[in-house]
Amino acid sequence: MIKMVYCTCNVSKLEELMKVLDDEPVESYQVFDEVRAKSVKGDPRLNNAVWPGHNASVMMQISDNDKVRNIARAVKEINNSAINDNELITFASWTLEEYFFE
């Protein structure tokens, strides 16, 4: 079963998130930079005069459920040491019905 994993974070946390992916290692992912976002916690980052800054998002396709759990655990550890809500990384995963690269 292949999972889609989605993480989004303040661009200042992207390097730390990418280290988690390298440590696992995650073989298939896409990075979206300059993502405008409003999250449940923290300030909006809409890259405008009122809400400056932006997020980065990473989408991963992972067939190893242990790897997904390890990434979730690592993100929780990062979040537990966050200084404030603006440093939190959002994590979500769901099962893919189809995934191919032809």
Task: Summarize this structure briefly.
By secondary structure, the chain is an alpha+beta fold. It has two helices and four strands.
Describe the structure in your own words.
There is one protein chain. The protein has one domain: Alpha-Beta Plaits, CATH 3.30.70. The chain is 25% helix and 28% strand. The chain has helices at 14-23, 65-80, and strands spanning 3-10, 29-35, 55-62, 90-95. Strands 2-3-1-4 form a 4-stranded antiparallel β-sheet, with helices on one face. α1 (14-23) runs antiparallel to α2 (65-80). The two termini are 18 Å apart.
What is the subunit arrangement here?
single chain
Query: Can you tell me the residue ranges where pLDDT is under 50 for at least 5 consecutive residues?
Result: none
Structural class: alpha+beta
Main beta-sheet strand count, sense and barrel state:
4 strands, antiparallel
- The CATH class is Alpha Beta
Give me the number of helical elements: 2
Terminal-residue CA separation: 18 Å
| Residue fraction in strands | 25-35%
Shape summary:
globular
Helix content: 25-40%
DSSP summary, beta strand count? 4
Q: Please tell me the total number of domains.
A: 1
Rg from C-alpha positions?
14 Å
Mean pLDDT: 95
Listing every helix as H and every strand as E from the N terminus to the C terminus, the arrangement reads: EHEEHE
- CATH arch. level architecture: 2-Layer Sandwich
Write the CATH fold name. Answer: Alpha-Beta Plaits
Biggest sheet: strand arrangement = 2-3-1-4
Write the layout of secondary structure elements.
Layout: E1 3-10, H1 14-23, E2 29-35, E3 55-62, H2 65-80, E4 90-95
Helix pairs in contact: 1-2
